[in-house]
Design goal:
Elements: E1 2-7, E2 10-14, H1 17-35, H2 39-57
Antiparallel strand pairs: 1-2
């Protein structure tokens, strides 16, 4: 995993698929746990996850490693 500042407030992340899957799974678990404690925080995390799901839906096919 590599992280770097793109600009203030924006981090660029380069991750393997399994690393990304672990982070998203953790975020989904956190959203479920927050739902009973803080509706506002849970809604914000849900908004981020919806944006992630939308971006994944527009992701093209897996690149050919031979290219």
């Amino acid at each position: 995993m590599r992280l770097g500042w793109d600009r203030p407030g924006v981090v660029r992340a380069t991750l393997k698929v399994e690393e990304l899957a672990a982070l998203v799974a953790g975020a989904r678990m956190a959203a479920a746990a927050l739902a009973g404690q803080s509706a506002e925080q849970a809604a914000e995390l849900d908004r981020v996850l919806v944006g992630f799901d939308r971006a994944v839906a527009h992701l093209g096919p897996v690149p050919d490693p031979a290219r």
